[in-house]
């Protein structure tokens, strides 16, 4: 660990930063300075000057490098997201999770890494979380102890505090790359082969209905975003998401986002509401960021009634599990028909299931592409088109029932 990291993690540093933070807040209030309205350069120059003056006047025993570090961190406390600001600014950070004042992790390259940053207390975590959420119009307090929201850059933030979080406030930020992954990047990383991409491009252009399935963090949304670029520019796309993550570079996209209930538990707008409304908006294709509730029935109906080429993602560990999960969600949504009728509806609605996963080494990889076949005696036929072979490290072309 570097000397800077040791200094940052020390109790002495946290105490000093807290004292300096309060000193600067009083100074800004006394002078009537609205530092949030200043440019980044002007704010940084002012804070660094004030920190140097504070260190000299109070004879704080730190060197010049430590003074600069203290100034930068204090600036982050005043106009940024505190200890998280330096992590948010790093392009290789995919996720940030805070489990407590001394437990901050990031995901880099598919692996969680402990970071040399800390908060001074649980109250410090809560203050930063509230600062993140305030511009979004969201509250985080005892009456609303759990919040899920989307930041302006598309990142998702989840915060949960006591009494729901027993050991103190927890914060999770899921970041998204400003640039969508390209075909070449996916091929170079070994996630997929050119043959698979050519096959899926033809499927998208042929307006086949596709579901991308996988576990949490497997890259479902990233992959859906990538294959959606093959939709013709002449088509009108409607996207429906709980938190807008898709970044479609397309000339005719209408983006819809669900709304949680207000403090009175009213005025929520669900994915099902949006899917139903989307059918009245003359879509050529409907893309649901993730099917996770009673919208499953409306999505399947849309795929069955002329909205070919629609796409979605689903949490499932395999294509076969995806079929079972669709049945489970339909049951929760009040589907009253028998299993065979529902599977017939699935067979008519879905053409292809793409399975992606994050492996033990953090690598994200497409594991299979399977075509939804016809109903058998008691089950739905799945026909593999491509399957990843771990021994050879290649995606092999198949043509047999699974």
Main sheet characteristics:
9 strands, mixed
Distance between the termini: 51 Å
Helix and strand element order: HHHHHEEEHEEEHHEHEEHEHEHHEEEE
CATH architecture identity of the largest domain = 3-Layer(aba) Sandwich
Low-confidence stretches: none
Q: If you had to describe this structure to a student in words, what would you say it looks like?
A:
Pfam families: T2SSE (PF00437). InterPro entries: P-loop_NTPase (IPR027417), T2SS/T4SS_dom (IPR001482), T4SS_GSP_E_ATPase (IPR050921). It comes from Salinisphaera aquimarina. The protein is of the alpha/beta class. It folds into three domains: about 1-80, no CATH class; about 80-175, Beta-Lactamase, CATH 3.30.450.90; about 185-395, 3-Layer(aba) Sandwich (Rossmann fold), CATH 3.40.50. It has helices spanning about 5-10, 10-30, 40-55, 65-80, 85-90, 120-135, 185-190, 195-205, 220-225, 270-280, 295-305, 320-330, 340-350, and strands at about 95-100, 105-110, 110-115, 145-150, 155-160, 170-175, 210-215, 235-240, 255, 285-290, 310-315, 350-360, 365-375, 380-390, 395. The strands form two sheets. It has a nine-stranded mixed β-sheet with strand order 9-8-10-11-7-12-13-14-15, sandwiched between helices. It has a six-stranded antiparallel β-sheet with strand order 3-2-1-6-5-4, covered by helices on one side. Strand 12 (about 350-360) and strand 13 form a beta hairpin.
């Amino acid at each position: 660990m570097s000397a800077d990291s040791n200094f940052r993690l020390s109790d002495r540093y946290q105490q000093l930063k807290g004292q300096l933070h309060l000193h600067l807040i009083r100074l800004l209030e006394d002078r009537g300075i609205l530092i949030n309205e200043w440019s980044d350069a002007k704010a940084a120059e002012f804070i660094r000057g004030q920190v140097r003056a504070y260190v000299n006047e109070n004879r704080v025993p730190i060197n010049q490098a430590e003074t600069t570090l203290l100034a930068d961190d204090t600036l982050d406390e005043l106009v940024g997201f505190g200890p998280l600001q330096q992590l948010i600014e790093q392009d290789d950070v995919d996720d940030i999770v805070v489990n407590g004042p001394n437990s901050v992790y990031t995901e880099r390259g598919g692996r969680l890494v402990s970071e040399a940053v800390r908060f001074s207390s649980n109250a410090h975590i809560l203050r930063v979380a509230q600062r993140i959420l305030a511009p979004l119009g969201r509250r985080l307090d005892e009456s609303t102890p759990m919040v899920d929201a989307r930041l302006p850059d598309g990142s998702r933030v989840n915060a949960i505090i006591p009494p729901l979080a027993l050991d103190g406030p927890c914060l999770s930020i899921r970041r998204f790359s400003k640039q969508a992954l390209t075909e070449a990047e996916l091929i170079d990383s070994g996630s997929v082969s050119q043959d698979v991409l050519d096959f899926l491009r033809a499927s998208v252009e042929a307006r086949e209905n596709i579901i991308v399935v996988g576990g949490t963090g497997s890259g479902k949304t990233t992959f859906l975003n990538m294959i959606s670029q093959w939709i013709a520019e002449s088509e009108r796309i409607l996207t429906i998401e709980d938190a807008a993550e898709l970044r479609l570079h397309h000339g005719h996209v209408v983006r819809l986002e669900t709304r949680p209930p207000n403090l009175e538990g009213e005025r929520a707008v669900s994915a099902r509401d949006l899917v139903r409304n989307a059918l009245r908006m003359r879509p050529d294709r409907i893309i649901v960021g993730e099917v996770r509730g009673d919208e499953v029935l409306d999505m399947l109906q849309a795929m069955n009634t002329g909205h070919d080429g629609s796409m979605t993602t689903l949490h499932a560990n395999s294509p076969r599990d995806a079929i079972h999960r669709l049945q489970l969600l339909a049951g929760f949504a009040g589907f009253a028909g028998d299993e065979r009728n529902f599977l017939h509806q699935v067979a008519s609605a879905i053409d292809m299931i793409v399975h992606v996963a994050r492996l033990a080494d953090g690598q994200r990889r497409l594991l299979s592409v399977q075509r939804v076949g016809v109903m058998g005696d008691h089950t739905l036929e799945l026909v593999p088109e491509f399957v990843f072979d771990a021994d050879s490290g290649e995606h092999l072309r198949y043509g047999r029932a699974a």
